[in-house]
Amino acid sequence: MVEDDVRSAMLLQDYLKVTGHNVEHLSDGVGFLERVRSFNPDLILLDVQISESLTGLDLLKQLQHQLDLERIPVVMVTAMAMNGDRENFSPLERSTT
């Protein structure tokens, strides 16, 4: 999970641990690909807005360019709930080929 908001991260992490999941938390994207490789997650939760210089969308693009990591499912987490926000992410959907 990559989440910069401490409260959101604690809530998600606590819930996932109570439901039996192991959770690795990054508060920013530093070392993201290395941590993904070492932890080998079944799923990645990415906050859309991590910082001004690096977003969850940037990390998603990095992940998709790694042949050994591109098949890990990713859930984008955001408070962005305005009309049209969902469509902003649709071009990033992975191809099934």
Task: Please sum up the structure shown.
It contains four helices and two strands. It has helices spanning 6-18, 32-39, 56-64, 85-89, and strands at residues 44-47, 74-77.
List the helices and strands and how they pair.
Blueprint: H1 6-18, H2 32-39, E1 44-47, H3 56-64, E2 74-77, H4 85-89
Parallel strand pairs: 1-2
Q: Given the C-alpha coordinates, what overall shape results? A: globular
Instruction: Please state the structural category.
Output: mainly alpha
| End-to-end distance | 26 Å
Write out the strand line-up for the largest beta sheet, numbering strands in chain order.
1-2
Discrete helix count: 4
* Approximate strand percentage: 5-15%
| Overall radius of gyration | 13 Å
Whole-number mean pLDDT: 85
What ranges have pLDDT less than 50 throughout 5 or more consecutive residues? none
Give a quick account of the main beta sheet: strands, pairing sense, barrel closure.
2 strands, parallel
Q: How many E strands?
A: 2
Q: Helicity level, as a percent range?
A: 25-40%
Describe the structure.
The chain is mainly alpha-helical and 97 residues long. It is built from four helices and two strands, in the order ααβαβα. The chain has helices spanning 6-18, 32-39, 56-64, 85-89; strands at residues 44-47, 74-77. The protein has a two-stranded parallel sheet. β1 (44-47), α3 (56-64) and β2 form a beta-alpha-beta unit. The longest helix has 13 residues, at 6-18. It is globular. It starts with 5 loop residues before the first helix and ends in an 8-residue tail after the last helix.
